[in-house]
Design brief:
This protein has about 550 residues and is an alpha/beta fold. Helix content is about 35%, strand content about 20%. The chain has 18 helices and 23 strands. The strands form 5 sheets. It has a 9-stranded mixed β-sheet with strand order 13-12-14-15-23-22-21-18-19, with helices on both faces. Strands 5-2-6-1-7-10-11 form a 7-stranded parallel β-sheet, sandwiched between helices. α1 (about 20-35) crosses α9, α4 (about 95-110) packs across α5 (about 120-135) and α5 (about 120-135) crosses α6. The radius of gyration is 25 Å and the shape is globular. The chain binds glutamine. Glutamine binds near residues 387 and 465. The site of glutamine has 10 residues, from β19.
């Protein structure tokens, strides 16, 4: 833009949760980027936890880790994957974080003896948070408000974004409201009433939406759009139909087709002619997704398998790798605790590859160790992530290095062979917030190792979120048993990557590479895992896959 004036788009949701507000916001972000605009995104969550780091994945799904070690909402994963920008701690704030900071200021005496109140102190804190994002040299800040309009705890956020438009000027803010237009089978009709109610609710809190995005399982007819336009007091073009898509990466194209980005530019007084859209890269991706048909079965051996959102980035990373290979990755969830039973019935044989993802706590760990062993003994490609690497270490220690009782200190406080342990500086784990190794760390890779060839580099950086490490005391014994520590921290102390020579792909990393995969740039480790699994699925000798040559 000629003169820099940051624009803000606020996304609210109505009627029901889980309508895909994060994906819709991310898709808009992608469209604006395709117009050459600089975009950042933020999620404001009305719950009281300071961050989702302490929440059970069953409650909240995956904790997405940013480069700077922020433990954030899983929607940030969608944001990063869609807008292809690294976000940061400030890209997610909760009621808990906002209140903590207001309370800290109150204790410091910053409020000069005033009564500290939701309005103006909490709302100001929220607005300041948003302003800071606007001062980072971007053209557009997209802010998603978590929860649903009508919730009690969302009120301070709605009030803050209402005031925000007054503060920065009408043309610099747009409000997008996402609702549900259900189809009622008995009457064969789509219903607008829930949308009307939800918009009425929003208006009673002082916000007139500029755009209403209607989620539905079928297109919204012109007649229905006219009705919503009339009753919710928005122009026809402001009613956007967002039908369920075959895959999430189609959503930007669906929304562009409906004119969402063009209309919003108009509202924000950004000249669309100065920012013509170039969708070619994204269209190429969508074509790649459609062409991904070679079947490959990957088992995820996890603990939270009843809520697949707990492993959202792992699933997306596998899909991205599939797009690259033209493969349709069929994901099969395996409850870790059931692995020993499954093994008795040969139950892992039908997989072409396995992932053992991260996790905390003892439940299912023996099953994961058994899966790692099965993969090792049967040349089954396996990628271990964080806890996944730790169980692979335990498996090598027990099966190849003669340490029968080897374990992680996390699960066996008194084992004689704590092959995975806390490092000296990490002994206090009483405070569950922020005591982990979090965020990006570099690793040095062993030249010509499988991982170095996969990355095409010998210095890499990955995001971390864990307390325990491979115990340096046992490293030599593990290496003598055949394990290759193919990546270590720059000071050589911490093991970051492991592999087994002679195995098609038995690779573990202490990090969480799943947070860095992008739909059109699959992460090298997932790419190689899926490549090796495909070789197996299609009956080629998996030993012969030429790692590094793919792509
Ligand atoms: N529980 C393990 C640790 O704290 C692994 C954590 C994880 O997988 N993210 O080190």
């Amino acid at each position: 833009m000629s003169e820099r004036q940051t624009k803000y788009v606020f996304f609210t949701g109505g009627v029901a949760s889980s309508l895909g507000k994060g994906l819709t916001a991310s898709s808009l972000g992608r469209l604006l980027k395709c117009r050459g605009l600089k975009v950042t995104m933020c999620k404001l969550d009305p719950y009281i936890n300071v961050d989702p780091g302490t929440m059970n994945p069953f409650e909240h799904g995956e904790v997405f880790v940013t480069e700077d070690g922020g433990e954030t909402d899983l929607d940030l994963g969608h944001y990063e994957r869609f807008i292809d920008e690294n976000l940061h701690k400030g890209s997610n704030a909760t009621t808990g974080r906002i209140y903590s900071s207001v309370i800290a200021k109150e204790r410091r005496g910053d409020y000069l003896g005033k009564t500290v109140q939701v309005i103006p102190h909490i709302t100001d804190e929220i607005k300041n948070h948003i302003h800071k994002l606007g001062q980072t040299g971007v053209d557009v800040v997209i802010v998603e408000i978590g929860g649903t309009v009508g919730d009690i705890e969302i009120l301070p956020f709605i009030e803050a974004i209402r005031q925000f438009r007054r503060d920065v000027g009408r043309a610099n803010v747009a409000y997008v409201h996402l609702t549900l237009v259900p189809y009622l089978r008995p009457s064969g009709e789509q219903k607008t009433k829930p949308t009307q109610h939800s918009v009425t609710d929003l208006r009673s809190q002082g916000i007139q939406p500029d755009v209403i995005v209607c989620r539905s399982d079928r297109m919204i007819s012109e007649d229905l759009k006219r009705k919503i336009s009339l009753l919710c007091d928005v122009p026809m073009q402001a009613v956007v139909s967002c039908v369920d898509a075959d895959n999430i990466y189609q959503i930007p194209l669906v929304l562009h087709e409906e004119g969402l980005d063009t209309y919003l530019l108009d509202i924000l007084e950004i000249n669309a002619n100065d920012h013509p859209i170039d969708l070619s890269r994204w269209e190429h991706l969508v074509a790649q997704v459609a062409a991904a048909v070679r079947p490959v079965r990957i088992g995820i051996i996890g603990k939270y398998v009843d809520l697949p959102d707990a492993y959202l980035s792992v699933v997306e990373s596998l899909r991205h790798a599939g797009f690259h290979h033209g493969a349709k990755v069929e994901i099969e969830w395996v409850q870790a605790a059931t692995v020993p039973d499954l093994l008795e019935r040969d139950g892992l044989r039908s997989f072409d590859g396995l992932v053992i993802p991260g996790g905390f706590g003892e439940r299912g760990v023996e099953g994961k160790i058994a899966a790692a062993r099965f993969a090792r003994e049967h040349d089954l490609p396996l990628l271990g992530l964080c806890l996944g690497l730790q169980v692979m270490i335990i498996e090598v220690a027990r099966s190849l290095a003669g340490m029968d009782d080897a374990n992680s200190r996390e699960f066996a406080a008194t084992t004689r062979h704590p092959v995975v342990d806390l490092m000296d500086e990490q002994v206090d784990v009483s405070d569950k917030g922020g005591t982990m190794r979090l965020g990006s760390y570099d690793a040095r890779l062993l030249p010509d190792s499988q991982v170095a060839r996969a990355y095409g580099d010998v210095v890499v950086s990955e995001r971390h979120r864990h307390r325990y490490e491979v115990n340096p005391r046992f490293r030599e014994r593990l290496e003598e048993a055949g394990l290759v520590c193919s990546g270590v921290s720059p000071d050589g102390r911490l093991v970051e990557f492991i592999e087994l020579p002679g195995h098609p792909f038995w690779v573990g990393t202490q990090a969480h590479p799943e947070f860095k995969s992008r739909p059109d740039q699959p992460h090298p480790l997932f790419r190689e895992l899926v490549g090796a699994a495909l070789s197996r699925a299609e009956g080629r000798d998996p030993h012969l896959i030429d790692i590094g040559a793919v792509g």
